[in-house]
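In this section we walk through a basic example: taking a raw amino acid sequence and producing a predicted 3D structure, encoded as discrete structure tokens. The instruction is simple. Fold the sequence below.
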Amino acid sequence: MPGKNARAAITCVGLGLLLWGVLLVTAPGTAGILDATWTAPTTNTDGSPLTDLVSYSLYYGTSSSPCSGSSSVQVASPTSSPGPNQTMSFRLTGLTTATLYNVAVSAVDATGNQSSCSGIASAVARADFAVSPTGAVNFGSVNLGSFAEQTFTVSNTGGGTISGSTSVAAPFSIVSGSPFTLSGAGATQAVNVRFTPTTTATVSTNLSFTASGGTTSGIVTGTGIGSDTTPPTMTITSPSSSPTYTAPGSSLTLQGTASDNVGVTQVTWVNSRGGSGTATGTSSWTASAIALQLGSNVLTVTARDAAGNTATANLTVTLSDTTSPTVAVTAPAAGTTVTSTVGVSGSATDNVGVAGVQFKVDGGNLGAEVTTPPYAVTWNTTTTADGAHVLTAVARDAAGNMATSAEVTVTVANAVANANPQPIDVTSPVISKVSLSVTSSGATIGWTTNEPSDTQMEYGLTGSYGSLAPLNTALVTSHSQVINGLAPNTWYHFRMRSRDAAGNLGVSGDYKFKTRAH
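The resulting token sequence is shown next.
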């Protein structure tokens, strides 16, 4: 058995490097490959049989002497004792195509001894996939609203399995064939590319095929000609596809679709009763929080393309009203003892608008119906017998829906008051220091009063208001109230109302704000 020194340097006796490669037509930058084969050594330098072969060092590069200094890969030996004329093969990848490479190999034993390098073999790295046609491809002149297609073929030129994809920028698009998987040399995949011009201009861009870590690119060109006279199509799909709809509330969200032979650029809406805006989206669009008025609202939605062609769709919306108002007596408070002349006030709200509030004492009318805010009357209690009495308020809306407030029981005590007269508070609170914060769908309003009083906002699209925020009955001097559910980019009128413990109502002047856009 030979000693270790006799095996210190393994030489690849009979080692021949057979390297072949084929140059294929492809763009620079594609990952290139080379297949290297060589004959395995069988003996050591002293002629003894080789029994502990571990691996090979495969050197490659563009220099004339690739060993020790060029790139290398370690290739494991399938056996420690190769037989006569046993061959080894390894594929080098990640190379630059159309480039000449020099390759050599050495053997390594179990103790790390390495033989000298084999002779050098040379070949040009070939691509592992190819694309045709190559170079610049012109789709020609295409009318606006039409398109042209070209077919490109991707081929597996390196063997094995190649997976990749194709990409291109608008107005070109990939119709079919991407992503692709090619198994085995010679396998092909057709990739269809479409040119759809949107302007009368010549457009060029890169068409890229990427696979196995490499990319091949070419230029595609097309020219748009003619003019676009084809209008878009427009459809309202929600809340109804029929031409009429009965809405349950005071606002509405529309949704629908639009299409065009070139492309829809914008979708807008307008209400015949006031208000307009731009929908979100184009081919699938949404117009949110459209404010409605009582009665018939004709909503018109318009789709527009880049050439100015338009198409419209209409939906006639009625605000049927079956919802009763809400109403409450806010002054005097339950359990209060009243004398002489006092103010009786209430709050009322409705989904559309309050038409009037009728105050009652023990079921009988107290004065005439109040048809505009503030809802308040004066009660001369001297015409009513001393003792407990029940106050209520009845609110109605324009559709005839009615609601009655909870009962408020007060005590009339004029005989006692006449025996012990007290000064009567007849001064309304003074409203000042108004502050405002606005969003696209609401607002927060703050103010102060010179005496403790309740808190309530009155607002609407016009100076007649029509809507009341919920009453806050806490008697304070610093007030804040939030109103929501407003339409974006719309002007609103508002004023503040605060009533003191004696029932005196303070009302501010008219203010306006405009909600933010989306």
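Looking at the output, two observations stand out. Residues 1-29 have pLDDT under 50 and may be disordered. Residues 444 and 482 are 4 Å apart (CA to CA). In the next section we compare this with other chains.
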